[in-house]
Amino acid sequence: MNRDEKLTRVPGLPPVEQNMGGRNVLSPAEPGGGTWIAANDLGVTLALINWYSVSARPDGEAVTRGAVVSAAGAAGTAESVNFALARLPLARIKPFRLVGVFPAASEIVEWLWDLNRLARQLHRWQPQQWISSGFDEPAAQRVRSRTFQRALRQKSAGTLDWLRHLHRSHTPQSGPFSTCMHRAGAATVSYAEVVVVSNQATMKYHPAAPCQRATAVIHHLRRRP
Q1: What is the sign of the dihedral through the CA atoms of 83, 84, 90 and 95?
Q2: What is the pLDDT of residue 6?
Q3: Residue 79, class by beta-carbon neighbours within 10 Å (0-12 exposed, 13-18 middle, 19+ buried)?
Q4: Residue 32's pLDDT band (boundaries 50, 70, 90)?
Q5: How does strand 186-196 pair with strand 200-206?
Q6: What letters, b where the CB count within 10 A reaches 16 and e where it falls short, cover 151-189?
Q7: Model-level pTM?
Q8: How far apart, in whole angstroms, are the C-alpha atoms of residue 113 and residue 115?
Q9: CA nearest 90: which of 63, 111, 66?
Q10: Phi and psi of 146, rounded to 5°?
């Protein structure tokens, strides 16, 4: 996951391991609370992106979208995520898309909140891409999707080296629509990678744009049987 933010925003904090509801969870953190990605000791990974294409905004003081992943980070199933979301004050949270990867069930589930309805969509167990852009979301979707589809045709598709190369890509040129995003006032500010195998989950956090040198923070979490 590439995280794109305004350059004036306070940087996120590196991942730490926390106990949530009796389950160990790895996640970076917003300085003001919450997170945008988490992996737990069942191998479940949740990631949230802002849904800029939906213009609706809550009335009154909004609750940070970072609370969504924090609330559901310990979930072991899609149904557990449903229960966690039902307990949130969704009417005060800006539109978002939440993606959950459940390896034990080979499920990819997406929750879409538009301030009117919380929809749930089941995706096929195959390589997928989700895109968010506060600059021009439809255009970013078109350009980055083309980059992704071309990358899928490479012989190395699916390897970690391939994934890392994709996330630092400036195709078709460095700018607001490249996967590693750079524009006036905003850019990709970090890269978070989750690898789940039979006995552990690993989160690698690169605290800068993937195209830039930085010391990565790596955490391993023993996966529960």
Answers
A1: negative
A2: 95
A3: exposed
A4: confident
A5: antiparallel
A6: beeeeeeeeeeebeebbbbebeeeebbbbbbbeeebbbb
A7: 0.96
A8: 6
A9: 63
A10: -65, -40
Name the architecture of domain 2-222.
Answer: 4-Layer Sandwich (3.60)
Q: Where are the chain's structural domains?
A: 2-222
At residue 98, does pLDDT exceed 80?
yes
Residue partners of 222: CB distance under 8 A and separation at least 6: 24, 41, 199, 200
CA 45 to chain centre: 9
Residue 87 in tokens: 């307990």
User: Do 95 and 76 touch, CB atoms closer than 8 A?
Assistant: no
| CA dist., res. 202 & res. 220, Å (int) | 4
Alpha-carbon distance of 67 to 63, in angstroms, equals 8
Largest CA distance in the chain: 51
Give the integer Cα–Cα distance in Å for 53 and 81.
Answer: 24
Q: Using alpha carbons only, what angle is made at residue 161 by residues 40 and 184, rounded to the nearest 5 degrees?
A: 85
